[in-house]
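Intended use. Records like the one below are meant for learning the mapping from a protein sequence to its folded structure. Do not use them to infer anything beyond what is encoded.
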Amino acid sequence: MQWTSRGAVLALLILLATPAAALADGGPVAPVQGGAIGVPGSQAGYGAFAAGGATVVKRLGVNDVPTGAQLRVAGHYGIPGVDYSGGMTGLSANGRTLILAGMPPSNHTPRVTPLVVVNAPRLTVRSRITLPGWSTVDAISPNGRWLYLIHYRQANISEYEVLGYDLLHHRMLPKPIVDPADRGEAMIGFPVTRVMSAGSRWAYTLYVRPSGKPFVHALDTVAHRAVCIDLPAMSSLNPSNGHLQLTAGGALLHVDVDGATRAAIATRSLRMLKQPAVPSHAAPAPTPARPAGHRSATRSAGGVPWGLLAGLLAVLAVLAATMVRRARPGRGATSPTSTV
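Structure written out for the chain above:
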């Protein structure tokens, strides 16, 4: 089984054990071991591999063949995963910073989130960070200064917030990052796929709700802002047939399902355009849904029963509606500790 299949299945197991109100921007998607992440336009990539009680980070060349350069880190870490199609994050677009995220325990909610900041070119540990509570890595800015996290505010992960962390000064932004037009609506869903803008400033992630319409979460990793764009209903959308692609030089973001464009978003205004469904091959100059350099062996989810998953998620959503109060932005997480 390819790493994408293992990662998707593991993430789904975590997903099905998680209250539905937590299933919005970011996760929880497990870190990936054995995959390859790279910088656009570069032949070099990196992968994290289990090695007993440690993790070995390897520099990879053409066809993801190890070059011999590697770093051994005590503990179990992986490249942060961001969607159920096998997408990863954590490597800055300038190629200088690589983030490793601790593998979550399988039998309880994490009390802390360990991260390792790696100097990618030299394959040396720059710093170690311990965040209180459970967070997942959502994105990193192009210059590697800003790290974006999904922090689950309670042990049962019924509340979450999107946080920004300054890797230069080792401190959290004072306020969570929210859509300024947010009307206090609960965002319930799971990440299907992601595409990055040219230069990796914007992270566009497609989410499916267990009930209701899907949406795209647009995160500006430089200016610390986010926008949610609601989409038309797409009952057949799942990680095996949903894709995002930037077209017209990045001016349009197409949401493709089963080979047809179901929605288009103007990236300048971040508003959905009105247009009928058209075959995705008719889109001008499509950009691959996976950012260039972010490599994976396959996009397959290994035969995961997405229809059954959607039904289970719908049940979770109904239960959550009666048991969990609506998640709202709050104060930032407690200051993390870090060592250099």
